[in-house]
């Protein structure tokens, strides 16, 4: 029996890649230095896998920014506007990811979207000319050769042709149809090149197989692979799926001339039914995803081995594998020296999951290993609850229901009352919440955590920053202000630190997109609020201005989805526990005189099941959890929320049921596509579609912003629209922020005048 890994974290044990790429952006390092670091990181990662006795070691899972963008560049799926910049290869690559503003031109970045139902974001390729599609890149081959030079026989991994085709945004239908044949020929060239290099295996990642697929989509998949596999030569082909089951495509895949099929048995629990109902070919190898690639709790070996024995009843030739890439978990618990061993003993990060794969292989193949003793130790560890339970919280959530948690009066009445109090102009301007997190802000927070300064010094610094932030916003001319969130390391971690039931790490970083990494909290026990969290800073900020300052909170679904969840209770129960804690904070903010409270649900869609048949169950508790946070507030208190980098068009009706007063959306990178969906369902809530992309260093011009706002005005009445960036500003610098917001305010003022003169 052998084992395999789909992918490995690429940022490094201490985010080395992030810092080197950012240095390159700032022109503080060269291409040669960046490439040298990448080579070093790849070698370290391969050595981790080799040392853990992993048999199928992936290559090409490393990326400077994003694997989907890598695949697009490999096959020359690059929009002509980036080619026109005449940049070198690496800078053209980054221009697509971040945008470009310089002596060669001014171009926005490509759209950024959620990678299926994870917190990773991919760059959406654009194709405006199918004729140029071809195998033009060589990164995947260089990685293969690098691994071979280290005496590793790697398994190259790449987006499968079906998934990659579905991820591309095409200029029009004609371009899309032409791209099918061009892309197929490019993939054939890829196969030929790997045959020349004498590769043993090639893995085509096809996560799109876990969606609901219609006949046309299945035909496209079959057409692609029937032709592609004619050219496989001596290479063994693995089709790898993850994030769910492949019930619609299973029979089609089995008929293909492939050598291996990868199935996820963690999130795709129905895959075992597919084996039972349709069997598995004895001449094919099943890569069984039995190690959870998305959560950090240790594997229950006895439960997993029982599953493996069940799988082997139908597929005798199996390889033990991760359920998905380990990109979605931190690097190693070896880098944690502050979290108590009694907790750490329960966790397995990426490096430890390699050991789990190795130990499972030993358990299943060794005759001398004391399995019973090992099982007993494993079971005792997993059963240790360490005071996870809070009976009061458990009882409270039993009383919550959709019928009970309804805010009154209805939206139309609330809007009239709120406007009479808030007296905001048409096209009111605001930001999403955070302001730049400068080095001194981070240093102040770190010094306090390390007990180098006392609470008074720490608080005084933050208050001074809030004063500066309020002054900057007033000078810019924004209508509704924020306090800047200088006390917050992260929009989820900060709240977790102030709630019971969470654990925190030092270096458990996970890549969210590009150079953006997050350190998700671990939900360990029942959640409750132990004290007020944001009230004092919110009151202080409001005291500094005659304008309205929003209270800023993170919603329960986002806190849950951006944390590592418990595995001993349902996600619904966890979400409702967090919702009750946030509800207490909302009511305290209201009692403190805060007139607008924003409860961000940036990740509402993130855990939405990929199969529509399962949507209702998730949306029922996700919308309920948000409603729990605010249904008790007074009519005159205006509730905002924010959502970003997901496709919401197909759940707009459910978002309406959140019953917020204002919802701001990420919309700038997606060219305001969401507006048509909002219009189609007569979306009741006031909206703030993001008018510029904060994940790019570009500063939008006044005319550009006016044109964006006019597009919004063409769809909705002016009384319904708010003007804001598409997300928080913490990752930008003040020079970019101030210039962009000044243009945003000026564009709004000019349009107000035009509207008043109509």
Automatic annotation (TrEMBL):
GO-annotated molecular function: 5-methyltetrahydropteroyltriglutamate-homocysteine S-methyltransferase activity; zinc ion binding
Origin species: Campylobacter sp. CCS1377
Binding site for L-methionine: 432-434, 485, 600
Keyword Repeat applies: yes
Pathway: Amino-acid biosynthesis; L-methionine biosynthesis via de novo pathway; L-methionine from L-homocysteine (MetE route): step 1/1
CDD domains given in the database record: CIMS_C_terminal_like, CIMS_N_terminal_like
Swiss-Prot/TrEMBL cofactor(s): Zn(2+)
The protein's name in its UniProt record: 5-methyltetrahydropteroyltriglutamate--homocysteine methyltransferase
Residues binding Zn(2+): 642, 644, 666, 727
Coiled-coil residue spans: none
Upper classification of the organism: Bacteria, Pseudomonadati, Campylobacterota, Epsilonproteobacteria, Campylobacterales
Residues in Cobalamin-independent methionine synthase MetE C-terminal/archaeal domain copies: 427-748
Keywords carried by this UniProt record: Amino-acid biosynthesis, Metal-binding, Methionine biosynthesis, Methyltransferase, Repeat, Transferase, Zinc
Domain Cobalamin-independent methionine synthase MetE N-terminal: 3-314
PANTHER family listed in its UniProt record: 5-METHYLTETRAHYDROPTEROYLTRIGLUTAMATE--HOMOCYSTEINE METHYLTRANSFERASE (PTHR30519)
Residues where 5-methyltetrahydropteroyltri-L-glutamate binds: 15-18, 114, 119, 516-517, 562, 606
Entry's Gene Ontology BP terms: methionine biosynthetic process; methylation
The family this protein is said to belong to: Belongs to the vitamin-B12 independent methionine synthase family.
Active site (UniProt): 695 (proton donor)
Role noted for this protein: Catalyzes the transfer of a methyl group from 5-methyltetrahydrofolate to homocysteine resulting in methionine formation.
Residues bound to L-homocysteine: 432-434, 485, 600
NCBIfam families in the cross-refs: met_syn_B12ind, PRK05222.1
């Amino acid at each position: 029996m052998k084992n395999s890994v789909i992918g490995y974290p690429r940022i490094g044990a201490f985010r080395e890649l992030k810092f080197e790429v950012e240095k390159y952006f700032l022109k503080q390092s060269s291409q040669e230095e960046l490439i040298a670091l990448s080579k070093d990181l790849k070698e370290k990662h391969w050595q981790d896998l080799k040392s853990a006795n992993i048999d199928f070691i992936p290559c090409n899972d490393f990326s400077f920014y994003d694997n989907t963008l890598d695949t697009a560049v490999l096959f020359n799926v690059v929009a002509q506007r980036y080619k026109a910049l005449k940049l070198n290869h690496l800078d053209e690559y980054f221009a697509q990811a971040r945008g470009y503003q310089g002596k060669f031109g001014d171009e926005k970045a490509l759209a950024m979207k959620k990678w299926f139902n994870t917190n990773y974001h991919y760059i959406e390729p654009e194709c405006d000319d199918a004729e140029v599609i071809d195998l033009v890149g060589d990164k995947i081959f260089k990685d293969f050769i690098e691994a071979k030079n280290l005496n590793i026989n790697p398994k190259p991994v790449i987006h499968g042709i079906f998934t990659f085709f579905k991820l591309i945004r095409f200029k029009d239908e004609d371009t899309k149809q032409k791209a099918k044949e061009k892309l197929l020929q490019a993939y054939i060239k890829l196969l030929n090149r790997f045959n020349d290099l004498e590769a043993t295996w090639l893995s085509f990642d096809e996560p799109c197989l876990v969606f609901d697929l219609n006949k046309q989509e299945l035909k496209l998949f079959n057409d692609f692979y029937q032709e592609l596999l004619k050219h496989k030569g001596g290479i063994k082909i693995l089709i790898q799926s993850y994030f769910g089951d492949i019930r619609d495509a299973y029979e089609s895949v089995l008929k293909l001339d492939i050598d291996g099929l990868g199935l996820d048995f963690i999130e795709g629990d129905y895959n075992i039914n597919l084996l039972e109902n349709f069997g598995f070919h004895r001449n094919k190898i099943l890569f069984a995803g039995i190690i959870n690639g998305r959560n950090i709790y240790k594997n229950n070996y006895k439960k997993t081995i029982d599953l493996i024995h069940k799988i082997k009843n139908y597929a005798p030739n199996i390889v033990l594998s991760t359920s998905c890439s380990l990109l979605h978990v931190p690097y190693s618990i070896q880098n944690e020296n502050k979290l108590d061993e009694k907790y750490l003993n329960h966790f397995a990060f990426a490096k430890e999951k390699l050991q789990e794969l190795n130990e499972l292989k030993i358990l299943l193949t060794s005759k001398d290993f004391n399995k019973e003793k090992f099982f007993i130790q494993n079971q005792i560890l997993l059963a240790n609850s360490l005071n996870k339970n809070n009976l009061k919280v458990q009882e409270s959530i039993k009383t919550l229901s959709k019928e009970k948690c309804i805010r009154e009066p209805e939206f139309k009445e609330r809007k009239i009352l709120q406007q009479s109090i808030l007296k905001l102009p048409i096209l009111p301007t605001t930001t999403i919440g955070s302001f730049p997190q400068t080095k001194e802000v981070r240093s102040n927070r770190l010094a306090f955590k390390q007990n180098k300064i006392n609470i008074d010094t720490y608080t005084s610094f933050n208050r001074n920053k809030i004063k500066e932030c309020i002054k900057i916003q007033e000078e810019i001319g924004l209508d509704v202000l924020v306090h800047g969130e200088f006390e917050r390391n992260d929009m989820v971690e900060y709240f977790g630190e102030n709630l019971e039931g969470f654990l925190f790490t030092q270096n458990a970083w996970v890549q969210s997109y590009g150079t953006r990494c997050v350190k998700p909290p671990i939900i360990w026990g029942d959640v409750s609020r132990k004290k007020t969290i944001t009230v004092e800073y919110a009151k202080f900020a409001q005291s500094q201005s005659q304008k309205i300052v929003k209270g800023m909170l993170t919603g329960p679904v986002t806190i849950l989805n951006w944390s590592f969840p418990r595995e001993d209770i349902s996600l619904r129960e966890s979400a409702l526990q967090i919702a009750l804690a946030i509800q207490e904070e909302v009511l305290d903010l209201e009692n403190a005189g805060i007139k607008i409270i924003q409860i961000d649900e940036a990740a509402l869609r993130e855990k939405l099941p990929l199969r529509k048949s399962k949507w209702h169950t998730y949306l029922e508790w996700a919308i309920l959890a948000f409603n729990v946070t605010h249904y008790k507030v007074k009519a005159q208190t205006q509730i905002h929320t924010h959502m970003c980098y997901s496709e919401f068009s197909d759940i707009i009706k459910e978002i309406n049921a959140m019953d917020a007063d204002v919802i701001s959306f990420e919309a700038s990178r997606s060219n305001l596509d969401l507006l048509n969906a909002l219009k189609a369902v007569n979306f009741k809530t006031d909206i703030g579609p993001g008018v510029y992309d904060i994940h790019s260093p570009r500063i939008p011009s006044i005319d550009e912003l006016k044109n964006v706002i006019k597009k919004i005005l063409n769809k909705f009445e002016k009384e319904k629209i708010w003007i804001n960036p598409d997300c928080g500003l913490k990752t930008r610098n003040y020079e970019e922020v101030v210039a962009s917001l000044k243009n945003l305010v000026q564009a709004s003022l000019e349009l107000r005048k035009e509207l008043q003169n109509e």
